[in-house]
Structure formats: structure tokens, C-alpha cells
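Sequence in, structure out. Go.
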Amino acid sequence: MTSEKPKVGLITIGLLMGLFLSSLDQTIISTAMPTVIKELGGFSFYSWVFTVYMLASTSTMPIYGKLADLFGRKRVYLIGITIFLTGSVLCGFARSITELIIFRGVQGLGAGALLPISMTIVADIYPPDKRGKFMGLFGAIFAISSIIGPALGGLIAEQWNWGWIFYMNIPIGIPALLLIAIAMKESKSKVQLSVDWFGAMTLTVAVLSFLLALVLGGTNQESSASYAWTSPQIIGLFGTGAVFLALFLWIETKVREPIIPLQLFKIRTIAIGNIVGFFMSAGMFGAIVYIPLFVQGVIGVNSTMSGYVLIPLMLSSIVTSIIGGRLMSKVSYRAILVPSMILMTVGFIFLSQITVDTTKMQMVCYMIITGLGMGAVYPIVGTAAQSAVNSSTRGVSTSSSQFFRSIGGTIGISVFGSLLSQQLNSGLIELNKKFDTFSVEQLEVLANPQALLDSGTLISLPPEVFMALREVFSHALDKVFLGGLIFVGIGFIASIFIGNARLVEKKSLQKSQESIGLSNKI
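Output:
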């Protein structure tokens, strides 16, 4: 059946293009946002352009995974990418910050389908001994998009119109959609119509409540819509999340087709893999988000160069992502996961020790070590989740793995952002007592990390005050990386208990491939 082989290749290309789109849109807008804000206004809602995308995509991941198991991967994937492309066009046409936030939410609703279902389709069309290699390739695509996204976004906003950041999704997304629509032939037999809509609704409310509490909580000076952790608003959101989570868990024990079958978490590789993914993501985003702040505000590189500072981290992660994918068919998951988490832990130990005297070369070395540890973790936990179940629950298993990683990243960014803000506030108050230099207005400006880097007030400060200010910034970021070290350390400890599971041939492989119209002769 050699005629089927090109279909496998075409499907893989289409999936890679879709993955590139969804990961690129998480980073490409970051460097263009200053230009967007200049044109649309609404600086107080700056962070919501990122937050709403994250909320929409994260809350829908497990729902898409279950729908893919019920109605077929192809159908749900095509719906997801269509919604994503529609949101992209609408974002490009946005004429106010409110419209942009709403349309980014539409984008996120579609993006929630792209990554987990892509991983599920790979598990359907490739045998276990080849699956790891392509999971590593997916990890490399994610890292590459993270490298070029910020640079490309700044270039487009500077040379053309910021709307093209979203329009450029169309010439990539439409071919990806057509490749999947044409090449993937999915069986139409046995479509189950029992959908756990109450479970989907309660899960969505629970996730949104928790994420909103984490995003809005603390003393975030970048947004006017922020509240103290002990405020009625934040306590109310956490309480709402807890109530709906309990209701969701109860519903899942009663329905015939639960959105997330709780039995999945009795499987060690899935349960431990989700724990590792959660804590690794929480720590990893502490590095990705705040390393540029350190090199710009403490080491002293300009804003343009700080956008490229993560390249050593991402390039080294690409290397181990590919290597880890190839090793998966030869050794156990733990044999790759534990050394990876050790490397990442060592990297964060170094990062937590950085000071104003840390050099650019030292930072490069620390990032390489951290990146070498990061690279193989996502492919391992993703492959472990999808390989531990049969094809009937592979979609929900894969999406749950991605869901826990996304939740971990969200919590990491929120916790570290609050920690950084608190440390800067207390440090600046002590600095003001020592030098009696800043006015109340200057303290409010300097409490914002981005304003601290760009504020014109720094120019007129005496050299000794400026050096002390760098010390405050460095000390605050030390605490962020120390927090990341704690999260990564917990992930490392959890990885030890994942067991001796490994990729093995499955008897259900032929049935899985036949259900999507492919031969098992790949």
C-alpha cells in the first residue's frame, strides 16, 4: 500500500504547520504590542491581549480532546483551525483594544484544539517505535517558533502594519487545513453522540475562575484591573473555582462519557507525567518570561538584543528534544526524564545565584544547561500519556497532558509576576529610605518592571543610586528564579516515580490506522 505513504507525510506536514501557527501566536505579538497600544490605546488592558488567548485555549483543551475521541480527530481539528484562522482575520481588523481582546479570545478558542489533537493524530498514524522521533520534531518546531516569534513580530510592526502579524496566519493555516482535509481519510463508523456538556461547562467555569484569580491577584502594576490576594474578588474567584471543580469531579463519576475519565489518573505514567509537566512548565515560564528582564535591566543590554537572549535556551532545547525523541523507542521514559529534570534543576540553581556581576557569557552557559534539560520533557510526558491508553481515549489523554502543562505555565507566570512586583516594591521603599531620592510618583513608575527599564527618570539619577537600583532589580529577580527552582525541583522528584514504562508496539495500531484510512505499512 505504498500509495498511503505520501498521505502520512502530507498529514505530518499539515500538523507541523498548524503547530507552528499556534505556538508562534503566543510570542509573535509580544514585541509588536507597544506599536499596537500606540495606535489603539488602552494601555491598562495591555496584559489582557495575552491573557485572554491563554484563558480560552487552556480551558478548551480537555473538551477538544474528548470531542476528538467521540467525533473523530479530523473533524474536530478542522473546526479548531477554522476558528483560529477566523479569529486571526478579525484580530487584524480590530480598531480598538476591546475588539482585539475579544478576537484574541476567538483565536484562543481555536488554538485549544491544535496542539493536543495534533499529538493525538501523530499517535494514530505512527507506530510507537517511530512516534518518539516525531514528538521530538514537534518540540523542535515549538522551540523554533519561540525564537523567531518576537523578532518577526517586531519587524512586521516596524516595517508594515501590525495587522499583518495576524494576517500572515492565513497563507500558512489554509494550506495546513487543506492538507489535513484532503490527505486524512477518517472512518465515519460508530459516532457516539453522548457528550458530557455539564462536565464541559463546570470544568470551563472552574478553570476560568482559578486562572482569573491568578491573573488578577496580587499587586500587578501593569494592569489597573488587579486586586489584593485577600480581596473579596479574588477570594470569590477561588471559591467559585473550588465549588465548580468539586461539581465537575462529581459529574465525571456519574456520566457515561466523561470529558476527563478519572480512571486515567490511576495510570502511573499519565498521573506522574501530568505532575512533572505541571511543575516543569511553572518553572520554565519563570525563565522564559523573566530572563530578558534580567539581561536588560541588570546586565544592561538594549531592548532589541534582549529579544534574542533566549536563543541559547531554545537552541539547546531543540537538540535534546530531537535526541530524546529518538531515544524513546530504546529506553524507558524515566531514563530520559530524570536526567533531563536534573539538568533543568542544575540550570535553575545557577540562575537563582545570578547577581549584578553576572556576565553575558555566564548567562549563556546557564541558559544552555537549562535548555538541555527542558528539551526532552514535553515530548516524553506527551508520548507517555498517549501511549498508555488505546485509541478510543487517546485524544482526551493527550489533551489532559497538554492541559496540565498549560495550567502550570499560567500559574508560574502569575505567581512569579506577583513575587517580582512585591520584591520590587519592598526593595524600592528601602532604597528610598536610604537615599531619600524618589517621589511617590517615581516609586509607582519604578514598581513596574517594564517602566523600570524604559523610564527616562533613570537618566538623571546619581551613579550610586542607579547601581543600588540595579541591585534591587537583581535581588527581586533572584527570588523569581528561586521560585522556579522550587517548582522544577518538585518536578524532578516526581519524575523518579514514573516507573519503567516505555514505548512498545501496540496490537491496536493497525485498527487505529485503518480508522483514519491509512495502511499500517508506514
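Check: The radius of gyration is 23 Å. The longest helix spans residues 394-435.
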